[in-house]
Each structure stands twice: as structure tokens, then as C-alpha cells.
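Example for tutorial group B:
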């Protein structure tokens, strides 16, 4: 009798990040919150990250025993962090008489490709989760991981628990995917760096994807992509209170909303310049094909016009990919694809993002003007429909973010 009622109720997926489950105390707070949510409405699927800095600590441990810890064993190691949190939350909920079950990716059928460290979810067999929900349990799932066809444990890339939450919400037809975190929502800049950053009630999927991929830490861009594709609304909100956060979804953006929705920054980037590249068809194709095969995410590419049949290719990538790129540079040099490579670590990227950027003249110029006014040199610029990004020296980054934010969101100005 209970079952028919259960299976009518909508499903809510809630994902809690590492800082929200960073201690036993915090896990108990999450258990309180779940207890309150349960009285209300839905069937609940909870996705957890590892405790606090656990994943970083596991990476450091691996670095102590190996020069280059990657691949299968690394994923098996990193995936342990999330097993700790899901089982602890399961115990905490059961301890207060709530029916709950914790499941690993294997137990709940999250299938990925076989690309260790950066796997992509291929399918989710939701039968187990649904039957657990139907028997009245809160289902708690390990974020950030899956199982390959060969039954190896894989991980989805750093910050990947958001992707698990989004993929589960899509596969289960959830009413929404809550990203519960240590900030109150999505802001016009990182609120820990810019004190007057503005919190948005709603932004579009596209804006969320652009902000996340240009450095906003609040959400993994792939999670927003999945929810956009499956039309699942995302609610980014605090883990510690019940106030509304920021909704991410489709539909029109309010007409009066500011053109710029976010000033984002990314300090963990490196700039690579390949000099003396032969100016002939196929060279860029070869370079970026090699980078793609090595799983390297490129953030920005500039090829400048050649002189004397030699070109220069500059690209910006996430710092974590520097080692595989250094290996490739060695190969390219041997094969005569370039004669010199300059690697710069002391650069950072600052971007402005907004869905009205392309249709509003002058926004890029305003960004460049305030940077110039602060004496901050712009090294490279790239722009797209929804974003203008500048590469600058990393030691000026904080100042640049504050200055550019102040230009678009002056202190004291009302929404
Ligand atoms: N624990 C993993 C990480 O730190 C996944 C996540 O937090 O989303 O990257
Ligand atoms: Mg995280």
C-alpha cells in the first residue's frame, strides 16, 4: 500500500560538496536537513563528495609513492573518499530511524567509458535506485565515480560529484537537481573575494556553463550541460540554511537584468607558446589532435599570422595538464613541428560572462579600459558570444577581478 504512494512522489536529487560533509559534525547537520526535507515532499537521492580535502590528500599520498600517479590504480584510490561519506551519512540517518541506503557507482549502475581520471558517464541503470526509493529509503550515492565496461572503477575528473548529481537527476527524471554548497548561490563574482558580489535569483544554463568553465567554482560545467540537455532545473543553494539560492534553467532572462552576469577568474592556468611552427596545412590539426588524445582541456587558442612561412601558436590550459603537454612538446620538437616552446605559469585568466554580451556594444572596451586604468597589462584576449576573457599576470588577478567587477556592479548601485 505504501508503495503506490511512494512511486507517485517526485524525485529530488541533492548533491552535497566536500565542505558540506567535511566533518562528522557537518554530516550530522546534513542528516538534520534531510530529516526536515523528508517530512515535506519528495523521494530523495543524495549524492556526496568526499570529506573536505580528502581527495587532495589522496592525490598527495599517491605522489609520495609514484612519480606520475594516473590511470586505473589512481581512480581506485580516489574513489575511496566518497565511500567514506556515503556510508557515514547512511549510518547517521539510520541512527535516527530514517530508512536509508548508501550505494557505490557499481551498486547503482553508473556506467562510464574507460578513460581513467576523466571518464564520461555512458548510462545509468536506475532499477536499483528506483526500487530502493519505492521501498521508502533515502538513497545515498557516491559522487565523482563510475564503472567502466571492464568493471574497473573510474572517476569523472575533479569536482565530478556535480556531474553524478546531474546525470542521476536526468536519468531519474527528477524534478530538480540541488547543488548544496558552502555559498548561497551563484554570484556576480566569487563572494569570498568581492564583498559586494551580487547573488542572482536565476541565470540560464548557458550562462552557468560559461561561468563554470571560466573559473567559477560553484558548479561543474558538465553538470550544467547535462541538465540543459535533459531540461532538469538546477538549484544552487547553501547546505546550511533553507533560503532560496540561484535557479539555473531555460526560458527568458528578465529584461532589466544586467548584461554582465559574472566576473570570473582562473589562476590555475598555464600559457604555452609554440614558436617557429611551419605555416602549412595540418600542423594545428596535429597539435590539437595530440592534445585532445592526451585528454588536455584547452581554454583559449591564438594563432598569429605567419611571417616567412613560420607561425606562432599560443594556447592556455589548466595547470593540471602541464605534465602531459610537456611530454607532447618533446615529441613535436623531435618531429620538427616547432623549434621552441615557452611555458608560462605565472599567468591567470579573467573573464566577463553574460548572454547579452554579443548584443551589447562596448562591454569588452569597458573591461579593457578599467584594466588599463589599473595599469594591468593584457597579454591575450579571446571573445565568444557570451564571454570576453583576458590573460594577465597572476599577481594582479585579485585586483583585476575587483576593478572589473566594480565597473559593472558599482558599490551602492541597486539591482
Ligand atoms: N571529491 C572529488 C574532488 O575533490 C569530487 C568532488 O568533490 O566533486 O574532486
Ligand atoms: Mg568538490
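The residue assignment follows.
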Amino acid at each position: 500500500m505504501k508503495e503506490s504512494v511512494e512511486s507517485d512522489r517526485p524525485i529530488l536529487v541533492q548533491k552535497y560538496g566536500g565542505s558540506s560533509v567535511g566533518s562528522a559534525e557537518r554530516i550530522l547537520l546534513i542528516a538534520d536537513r534531510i530529516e526536515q526535507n523528508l517530512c515535506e515532499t519528495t523521494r530523495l537521492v543524495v549524492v556526496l563528495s568526499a570529506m573536505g580535502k580528502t581527495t587532495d590528500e589522496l592525490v598527495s599520498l599517491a605522489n609520495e609513492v609514484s612519480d606520475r600517479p594516473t590511470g586505473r590504480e589512481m581512480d581506485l584510490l580516489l574513489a575511496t573518499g566518497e565511500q567514506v561519506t556515503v556510508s557515514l551519512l547512511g549510518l547517521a540517518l539510520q541512527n535516527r530511524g530514517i530508512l536509508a541506503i548508501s550505494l557505490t557507482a557499481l551498486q547503482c549502475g553508473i556506467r562510464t567509458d574507460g578513460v581513467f581520471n576523466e571518464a564520461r558517464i555512458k548510462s545509468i541503470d536506475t532499477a536499483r535506485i528506483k526500487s530502493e526509493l519505492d521501498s521508502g529509503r533515502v538513497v545515498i550515492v557516491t559522487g565523482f565515480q563510475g564503472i567502466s565496461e571492464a568493471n574497473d572503477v573510474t572517476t569523472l575528473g575533479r569536482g565530478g560529484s556535480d556531474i553524478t548529481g546531474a546525470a542521476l537527476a536526468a536519468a531519474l527524471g527528477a524534478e530538480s537537481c540541488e547543488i548544496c554548497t558552502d555559498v548561497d548561490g551563484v554570484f556576480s563574482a566569487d563572494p569570498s573575494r568581492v564583498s559586494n558580489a551580487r547573488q542572482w535569483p536565476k541565470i540560464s544554463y548557458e550562462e552557468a556553463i560559461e561561468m563554470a568553465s571560466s573559473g567559477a567554482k560553484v558548479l561543474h560545467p558538465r553538470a550544467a550541460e547535462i541538465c540543459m540537455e535533459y531540461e532538469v532545473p538546477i538549484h544552487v543553494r547553501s547546505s546550511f540554511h533553507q533560503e532560496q539560492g540561484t535557479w539555473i534553467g531555460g526560458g527568458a532572462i528578465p529584461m532589466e537584468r544586467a548584461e554582465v552576469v559574472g566576473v570570473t577568474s582562473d589562476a590555475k592556468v598555464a600559457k604555452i607558446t609554440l614558436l617557429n611552427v611551419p605555416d602549412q596545412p595540418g600542423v594545428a590539426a596535429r597539435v590539437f589532435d595530440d592534445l585532445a588524445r592526451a585528454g588536455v582541456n584547452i581554454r583559449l587558442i591564438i594563432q598569429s599570422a605567419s611571417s616567412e612561412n613560420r607561425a606562432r601558436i599560443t594556447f592556455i590550459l589548466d595547470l593540471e595538464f602541464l605534465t602531459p603537454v610537456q611530454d607532447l612538446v618533446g615529441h613535436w620538437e623531435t618531429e620538427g613541428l616547432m623549434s621552441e616552446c615557452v611555458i608560462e605559469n605565472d599567468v591567470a585568466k579573467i573573464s566577463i560572462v553574460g548572454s547579452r554580451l554579443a548584443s551589447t556594444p562596448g562591454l569588452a572596451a569597458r573591461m579593457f579600459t578599467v584594466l588599463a586604468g589599473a595599469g594591468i597589462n593584457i597579454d591575450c584576449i579571446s571573445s565568444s558570444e557570451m564571454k570576453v576573457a583576458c590573460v594577465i599576470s597572476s599577481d594582479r588577478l585579485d585586483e583585476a577581478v575587483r576593478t572589473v567587477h566594480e565597473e559593472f556592479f558599482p558599490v551602492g548601485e541597486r539591482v
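Residues 12-251 form a domain with the Carbamate kinase fold (CATH 3.40.1160.10). Compare this with the pattern of hydrophobic and polar residues in the output above.
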